[in-house]
Amino acid sequence: MGTAPAQTIEPLPQQLSDALEPPADAPGLGRRMVVVGAGPAGTVTAMLLAKRGYTVEVFERRGWPSRALAATLHSYILALTPRGLEPIVETGADPECCSASRAPRSVGMFDMNSGRSLRMPPGRKHIVDRVTLASDLIDEALRLHGNRITFHFDRQLQGIDLERQIATFADPGNSSLQLEASYDLLIGTDGASSTVRDILQDKVPGFRVRTLFQASMCYKTFHGLPVDDYPAPSATNDESSSAHAQSAVPSEVALIGTHNCREFTYNWRSPKSDVMVSMWKAEDGRMHGLLAAHDDLAEAEQERRLAAATPKLPAEWRRQIAAQTGSQGQLPSSFGKIVRCSQFHGPRVVVIGDASHSVTSTLGQGCVTALESCSALAATFAACGDDLDRVPAAFTRARAPDAHAVQDLELMQVHAMVPGLSAWRLPAILYARTVKALALLASLVFYKIGLLPSSVYLYSAFFAGVLPVRAIKRNLHLLAAAGAGLLTLFVWYLLLS
Ligand SMILES: Cc1cc2nc3c(=O)[nH]c(=O)nc-3n(C[C@H](O)[C@H](O)[C@H](O)COP(=O)(O)OP(=O)(O)OC[C@H]3O[C@@H](n4cnc5c(N)ncnc54)[C@H](O)[C@@H]3O)c2cc1C
Predict the structure, then answer these.
(1) What's the whole-model pTM score?
(2) Of 30, 60, 96, 240, which cross-links 38 as Cys (Cβ 3.0–4.6 Å)?
(3) What InterPro entries does its record include (predicted)?
């Protein structure tokens, strides 16, 4: 409990450690940052600020997120694409799970119902799980900046005195254990249900928050499904039982057995998309993943539902998933909230990551966008000459257009993909599907006549981060307009001929 426990972190070679030591006139020297939340955005922000010489205190309401805990009930998978990896590179850190030289690369995903693989656009990608990512980043933060960054675990934000610049934290298990931390700037990276955001909404005129979409599904995680050791059917008197067992390994399990760990994610959806199972193969050769559904069923019902909704999911896996995700065990976690803030700051306070621009997991952009925000914050410090009175508002001006554009694209994808028709969603669904179809039409035509390098150019540019997201959004609408023009010409031609 409390500050980070002692642990074995390899010391830095002297040369690298000297290179990381900020110069004597570093702008942040002698100034104290408080970061709320030790998720990916919190730790990457802490590292980028430590590089500028700031002393950073990170407060996290949960315990130390060790790698060992990743194989427990709380972690889930996420895909890091080049847009999200670049800010990590900028910190100088080399976290094991997404190291350019050591971590396995990811290729894409498999739709296990159709057996089709969807390869993601070129560029470095890693499938990581949330707890391992957080843990590896913290290890790197301590290795590189152990003298400037301090982590306090089991410390939950209770309140902020904006005038006196003091934040109060408590031990979630014992709220009488309170701790005050003064700050020169407070950075809220406390996730989609942010307390910092709630406090700003309460106390700062003009700070408005709107929930644009709330998914009705919840998820639970499961771990350790067998692949190479998939159990043979119960023993028979058959002499050739071992050959029989070999051939009885379901083809899905056999296929995954041929892949490297973290190479693909594997998705099983029910036809109505009301149950979804997503998993990946970890270094231990076993499958870990999550089950998303609208309701929480007991083990036996869960297994029956999986058998009916995802019949291609191998029987042994269905059994183990049901045992781990039945309602008697872990509590379901909600996900899939698009929350929009009118601004990302208050007086000497900044909110970044899911705290200021959460999305659903439909486009898989939440973490990537959160990490981009860390990089944008560091750039804002540089642009403002580390004037902490100017940084907060300048950050909103610099970051909101792109972060809101990600949310707009996400919302479009949600309405195009997520089932559930209602009167309020109908216009949004029609709009999203029309824009996507027209843009696809124009992309195909422009690719054929050599005006675009690929028919999925925008999609690739989005993942690779070669264009700002607001430009992607604008170009999508330009392509849709061009598609509408091409369609009109075609209809006109048909009518005239
Ligand atoms: C099922 C699922 C799949 C996803 N897939 C992808 C994907 O493929 N690609 C992608 O880019 N993103 C994905 N995401 C989104 C991604 O996980 C988040 O966007 C990302 O974790 C956001 O990082 P963050 O640091 O801003 O917030 P978080 O990761 O939520 O971290 C916030 C931290 O703050 C702590 N905290 C909260 N309140 C307090 C408090 N009061 N006091 C102190 N600490 C507090 C929390 O314990 C937590 O550690 C997925 C999300 C889910 C749920």
Answers:
(1) 0.91
(2) 60
(3) FAD-bd, FAD/NAD-bd_sf
